[in-house]
Amino acid sequence: MHKAVFLDRDGVINQKANEHDYIKTWNEFKLIPEIVDVMKHVQSKGYKIIIVTNQRGIARGIMTINDLNKIHENLRQLLHIHNIYITGIFYCSHDIHENCGCRKPKVGMFLKAKKLYNINFEQSFLIGDSLTDIMAANTLKIKSILYAKNAINKKIEPMPRYIVTDLNEINKIIN
């Protein structure tokens, strides 16, 4: 079985859009520079890199699956320049009220990745910036890392395994 680092996309790999908006085109996609070093590090440690992302903008008609695929293809090409290879990208295009099995905090995207790539969840990590990411990881016993740009002084439920305020801290956690 393989170990993986699952990454949420918006807020971890790229800057989030403004509230109630979505990253709809490659021109709106702004890579968070520190994530490149994190991806290089985890890849060098033998982890597969898998992106799991809720993309509600598709269900809302704000963007198309073709728009999303173009963004992801450009992301793959950009990371390839840095010798970073994404094993898989999984997305949920459903709206919240559709009650699908893939929209985080549900675990459908993770289970699909496990089946396709023979992933051992207990040897894997998830890097996310929301509690829905942490909930999904905790459900599957994936070690969860909450990326919170600003220091958090309150109790978080569900509790992530780790909390970082700087993406570079992740390289000390994942060995």
TrEMBL record:
This is D,D-heptose 1,7-bisphosphate phosphatase. Coiled coil: none annotated. It is an enzyme of class 3 (hydrolase). It comes from the Bacteria. CDD domains: HAD_HisB-N (cd07503). GO terms for molecular function: hydrolase activity. Transmembrane segments: none annotated. Monomer.
